[in-house]
Amino acid sequence: MTTASTTAATTSPHAIRHYLQFSDLTADEYVYLFDRMAVIKKKFKTYEKHQPLTDRTMAMIFEKASTRTRVSFEAGMYQLGGSVVHLTTGDSQLGRAEPIEDSAKVISRMVDLVMIRTYEQTKIDTFAAHSRVPVINGLTNEFHPCQILADIFTYIEHRGSIQGKTVAWVGDGNNMANTWLQAAEILGFTVHVSTPSGYEVDQSIAGIRSGDSYKVFKDPMEACRGADLVTTDVWTSMGYEAENEARRKAFADWCVDEDMMRAAQPDALFMHCLPAHRGEEVQAEVIDGPQSVVWDEAENRLHAQKALMEFLLLGRL
Ligand code: CP
Ligand code: NVA
Asked: pLDDT tens digits, residue range 256-276?
């Protein structure tokens, strides 16, 4: 791999590693990263100082709302010894149509790392193409790789390797679903996908090579049968609010309930990236029940992204 010893002063674009999709890292790099997350988490839990990014600065650009992504990246960067600059569309020139290319050139001369939450993947791709420093996808319409990074780390912590396991995806064929499909192809597990008609995953948008690592089910109960992990997401993602009423009708049967969890393996876990809507995509009894690991999953955003930031800036330690 290329060791990314980038700083804001670095001019060579060749050394830069971005994290724009789950497929930007190899299976071997994920093995390293999941181990590294455990090390970094343990240090955090025992108040052992770990500041490899002293004097590094990250710009965080949010064009959509966030709680977990903002707090985990901001707290994570401070814990690693660095600092952050927080920008939104409304309080920067990004909202006044400054070209993405120009913004990328300017911001990446002043910081060491950029995290972006935005709409179309093409926007973050364009930013990255003109950035001197690594760019991390903090959610786009198409992908949410940092979330799946934390989700798989959470699975490993609770159950060991995810290789060969089955993940049931119940709900929208959205950014989370696409990223699960990429992860399955890279890490060797299967995704059972059940979406209402009209909201299916699209292999070309998901950016996967073949249909070998996922199976489509009309009935969400059948998707959950025998699964090792059941997961879902909101019916209406950010940016699709105009479709809210149509989605409420279409998704009515795509609510993860106790019957679906009973159809899964007896030791199946339940995950949700949050925020959740109890009574819509998941029953309260499931998300607040014994198989749910959603709070570990949310916390692990912090540890997973600290390992990711360290890796993108310093390579393997
Ligand atoms: N799961 C997640 O990305 O949450 P936020 O929208 O709160 O960042
Ligand atoms: N699919 C959701 C995830 C939120 C973290 C969205 O894009 O709004």
From this structure: 999 999 999 999 999 999 999
- Determine the distance separating the centroid of ligand 1 and the alpha carbon of 209, expressed in angstroms: 28
Q: Which residue has the tokens 């998300």?
A: 287
With H, G, I as helix, E, B as strand and everything else as coil, classify residue 264: coil
How many angstroms separate the CA atoms of 194 and 168, rounded?
A: 8
Of all protein residues, whose CA lies closest to atom 3 belonging to ligand 1? 69
Flag whether the pTM goes above 0.85: yes
Residue 139 alpha carbon to ligand 1 centre in Å: 8
Pocket probe for ligand 2: among 234, 251, 274, the residue whose CB has the most ligand atoms within 8 Å is: 234
Do 220 and 253 meet the contact criterion of CB atoms below 8 Å apart?
Answer: yes
Cβ-based neighbours of 155, under 8 Å, separated by 6 or more: 162, 165, 229, 269, 271
Q: Which domains does the chain have, with CATH numbers?
A: 4-144+298-314 (3.40.50.1370), 147-297 (3.40.50.1370)
